[in-house]
Amino acid sequence: MNIKDTIILFDLDGTLIDSTDAIVGCFYNSFDELHYDFKGDDEDIKKEIGYPLDVMYETLGVPKEKISDFVSSYKKRYLTIFKEQTTLLPGAYDAVVEASSFARLGIVTTKTTKFSVELLESYGICKYFEAIIGRQEVTNPKPHSEPILTAKKNLNATSHDKVYMIGDTKLDLIAANEAKVNAIGVLSGYGNKEDLSKYTDKIYLTTLEAIKDLKING
Question: pTM for the whole thing?
Answer without folding.
Answer: 0.93
